[in-house]
Amino acid sequence: MDSMMLTHYLIIGAILFCMGLIGFITRRNLIIMFLCTEMMFQGVSLSLVAFSRYHGNVTGQTFVIFVLTIAAAEAALALGLVVLLFRRKRTLDANAWSSLKG
Amino acid sequence: MGLPAASSIPGWGESAGLWIKRRPMTAALYIASVVGAVALYMMMPRRGYTPVRFGFLLGACSLGGLWLFLGRELPAITGLPDAAAGYYYLFGAIAIAAAARVITQSKPVYSALWFVMVVLAVAGLFLTLEAEFMAFAMVIIYGGAILVTYVFVIMLAADSGDASDEDTPEYDRLPREPVAAIAVGFLMLSLLLSVFAMHSEDGSTFPQNYQAQSESDAFVITNELTQRPVTELEAKIKARNPDAVMPADLAKKDKLDNIEKVGLDLFKSHPLGLELAGVILLVAIIGAVVIAKKRVEDDALIQEEG
């Protein structure tokens, strides 16, 4: 795999990351906001695996396993919190919690 | 190194045309970013008519143009068929199109389903990178476990009462600050991409720190594993099932599979990380149970009583 092909994979990784970022800012639904952070994880994972292939070193893939672990733990906790917030306000709108700004 | 070199920014005396001629790849990436931003803005839900299809087409054109420009030196474009490169374009297009739908779709369940598409496409990209284990782990963990949790919560937290109503709630239909968000997102994207372009245009490649580990790892493993004594358990398993692959057999192979490499790296080089990941998962389980058990009073009820 040459440097040009690596650049191609990094471009897709960067696009996925930035799309997730845009989604996180624009979406007002708490669940979809978390879904967009998962999309950012996808972009980062893709870059890591591409670099791993480029260097011929599997440590990048090992790191993606840890990223997956954290993503799973984060999804379990964040979604539990979202359900808790929903039971309180009866809405998923992130703006409903703007009072947390202080 | 994070920013484009000062010479890549057009100076006052230098005409833009000269700059484009000198840095064609950076210019192409910037143009594609701007067109992509416009395309994504068109797809964003809004009051009145949303030209989703036109935005989609525009985005496809910008991405396709960018790829044609960038890939003109790749064997896939110049004739010599390279299967992995071909699948790269297929899965990459699916991933980006599905990602655009995730953030522009106003119905949460459809967003989650499009995200499954993103996961599948990224798994396909992993396959082209010869990372088979990661591809299947991605599909099983993301597509199987995490997405099911998401869909569960979306169903659980749906506004009851007007379930039959076709209209989605307002906070799903109208994005928050779409122009500013897209501007920021694509500014960041074009900065990231210009770093990649800088590498190519300056004739430098990404530094390769680990030269051809695939040849050396067999050597290292042979050295370490052949000297290691066969344990009692291993001998027992081997006696019962001659086909079982034991460390001593691994040392005899001259080329390791992806999953064998990942497993060796995970358990040999990162045992502490593995333990910590287990602890984090345990803490997450306990935390999720505690959060779920907690009784929450409805704000509206509290106000009625008070």
Give a quick rundown of the structure.
The complex is a heterodimer of chains A (102) and B (306). Chain A is mostly helical and 102 residues long.
Q: Mind explaining what this structure looks like?
A:
- The complex is a heterodimer of chains A (102) and B (306).
- Chain A has 102 residues and is mainly alpha-helical.
- Chain A has one domain (3-94): Helix Hairpins (Orthogonal Bundle), CATH 1.10.287.3510.
- Chain A is built from 3 helices and no strands.
- In chain A, helix 1 (3-26) packs antiparallel against helix 2.
- Chain A is elongated, with a radius of gyration of 17 Å.
- The mean pLDDT of chain A is 88.
- Chain B is mainly α.
- Chain B has 2 domains: 14-201, Four Helix Bundle (Hemerythrin (Met), subunit A) (Up-down Bundle); 213-305, no CATH class.
- In chain B, 70% of the residues lie in helices and 0% in strands.
- Chain B has 14 helices and no strands.
- Chain B has helices at residues 16-22, 24-43, 52-70, 83-104, 108-128, 132-156, 170-173, 178-201, 213-227, 232-240, 247-252, 258-269, 271-293, 299-305.
- In chain B, helix 4 runs antiparallel to helix 5 (108-128) and helix 5 (108-128) packs antiparallel against helix 6.
- Chain B is flat, with a radius of gyration of 26 Å.
- The chains are: A mainly alpha (102), B mainly alpha (306).
- At the A-B interface, helix 1, helix 2 and helix 3 of A face helix 3, helix 4, helix 5, helix 6 and helix 8 of B.
Which tags fit this structure?
heterodimer; A: 102 residues; mainly alpha; Helix Hairpins; 3 helices; 79% helix; B: 306 residues; Four Helix Bundle (Hemerythrin (Met), subunit A); 2 domains; 70% helix
Estimate nothing, just give the exact number of structural domains of chain A.
Answer: 1
CATH class category name of chain A: Mainly Alpha
Number of domains of chain B: 2
Q: Which sheet architecture does the biggest sheet of chain B show?
A: none
Task: Tell me the structural class of chain B.
Answer: mainly alpha
Helix/strand-derived category of chain A reads mainly alpha
Any guess at the CATH architecture of the largest domain in chain B?
Answer: Up-down Bundle
CATH fold label of the largest domain in chain B: Four Helix Bundle (Hemerythrin (Met), subunit A)
Helix-strand pattern of chain A: HHH
Total number of beta strands of chain A: 0
CATH topology of chain A: Helix Hairpins
Largest pleated sheet of chain A: none
Radius of gyration of chain A, in Å, reads: 17 Å
- The helix content of chain B is 55-70%
Largest interface: A-B, 78 and 98 residues
**Count of DSSP-assigned helices of chain A:** 3
In one word, what is the shape of chain B? flat
Quaternary structure: heterodimer
CATH class of the largest domain in chain B: Mainly Alpha
